[in-house]
Amino acid sequence: MGMNADQYRDQLAALLPSGVAWPRELGSRLMRLLRSLAEEPARVDSRAVDLLRESDPRRALEMLDDWERNYGLPEVCSAAGEQTLQQRRDALVSKIVTTGGQSRGYFIGVAEALGYSITIEEFRPFRVGMSRVGDPLTNGDWQFTWRVRAPAVTVRAFRTGRSAVGEPLRQWGNAELECKLARLQPSHTILQFAYGE
Q: What Rg, from alpha-carbon coordinates, does the chain have?
């Protein structure tokens, strides 16, 4: 994206007057001097490109700590122990996109941002005339209950470009999902989790 030192050297050389006193051969002292002068603008250019990359929380590396501090991370729900780079980024993106809501889509989106694939089941109250014999009796607290269905084991795999050197190749567990959804659930509801088929 940015220009390298050779490109800056060529631009500096283009600004020189023409003549025998201003040789353009790459091995000449003047061109070596221009190459050394071009190192700093090339370095600044490269860091500007890095800054653009860091402005996206999904790709942040050097500024990830700053992003986390600004969004109050790590939270109570952060996975126990050391989080991987991918988990930290997922938690950050989840925190950014979590604006509040009570719909199925909202909670599915929160789980998705954390790296989990879920479905949500709600219970319709048993109503005479609408329900049939054999339907579950889901009155009382059942009308305020919702069940999150997730795979028995959620596997987070090492991903090139998203994970860092030294991180495990695979991780298992759903503790972060349960904690996050329990913190966000509407206070009048009862949340259940079901794993597997």
A: 28
